[in-house]
Amino acid sequence: MAARIPRPAPPALVVHLMPMRRRHLRAVMRIESQVYPRPWSLALFMSELALRTTRAYTVARVDGAVIGYSGLMLAGDDAHVTTIAVDPAWHRRGIGSRLLLNMVRTAAARGAGHLTLEVRVGNEAAQVLYRRFGFYPAGVRKNYYAETNEDALVMWVDDIATPVYRERLAEIEATISGTTVVVGSAEGDGGPDSREPEDNQGREDA
Question: What confidence tens digit (pLDDT) does each residue in 76-96 have?
Fold first, then answer.
């Protein structure tokens, strides 16, 4: 079993965000199996990574190790958070916020004006994060998470390409300790489709 990387103190933390590649999938699958009751398969991730025009998948790395990842599906003016997950050993380090910031900016850069996701109705912690980004409840999908018979709260945020919203993102970013280094263009390549920690139909583990 590989030794865990010591977690640096927040001011010293440097997180690199970059497009997900096949070489990252072993680490992604390790986190996937820890976070989601019904993990995506390797084949599904690989098929998603091939859909570069409508997907954008990102990994978060610290000292070369993958500690989180996210996925975005693009469809014209709308974009959909398909997955967001963080290694449990790295929770409460702002990794989820970094990934979500990057997804919103990527969606706006690729022409989307609105962003949506699903989150378990009972996952209040994730909902707090999403509300901070301006997401609001827009409906409920009954029994969306089959493994737990839980409902999904559908959330949206609008006008993500406006100067006002960009200012909101800058304010959020200013509260995150450490440094975020984005490698590759926001309009660059991507990867998988929609979920949340229970099947990632809008996954939410931040």
Answer: 899 999 999 999 999 999 999
Task: Please state, in angstroms and rounded to a whole number, the distance separating the CA atoms of residues 160 and 181.
Answer: 21
Q: What are phi and psi of 79, to 5 degrees?
A: -130, 155
All domains in the chain, ordered by first residue: 13-182 (3.40.630.30)
pTM value is 0.85
Quick check: is 118 catalytic? yes
70, β-bridge pairs: 58, 84
Residue 186 and residue 206: Cα distance in Å, rounded? 20
Q: What is the pLDDT of residue 202?
A: 46
**Residue 145: active-site member:** no
- Catalytic one of 36, 57, 69, 130: 130
pLDDT tens, position by position, 166-177? 999 999 999 999
Q: Name the token pair of 147.
A: 């493994």
CB atoms within 10 A of CB 3: 5
Residue 144 tokens read as 């969306």
Q: Tokens in use for 155? A: 């959330």
> Which of the following is catalytic: 32, 57, 69, 118?
118
